[in-house]
Amino acid sequence: MVDISSTCMELALKENRNMKTKGKNEFKTPGRKKGSAEMLWKAFQFAFRDYTFAGGQADRADRLTRELAHEIETDSH
User: Fold this and answer.
1) Alpha helices, DSSP H only, in 1-77?
2) Separation in Å, CA 16 to CA 12, 35, 50, 52, 61
3) pLDDT tens across 49-66, in order?
4) What does pTM read for this prediction?
């Protein structure tokens, strides 16, 4: 389960970065930015639920969780 949530976080981070680099003008539209933040938040919530279910995380999952939290904070400002 931890591997699955880690993969989910990696995909969410990759998609978010692709959206940022693909079209910076498109990304500035409120709908896209909101959708991106929502996707990141859902990935973070899934990882947290997985963490509580599994009773802990691996180093990879811990690193990805911090990275995902940073992206959410950065995108919200």
Assistant:
1) 2-22, 24-27, 30-54, 59-76
2) 6, 10, 21, 25, 18
3) 888 888 877 888 889 989
4) 0.74
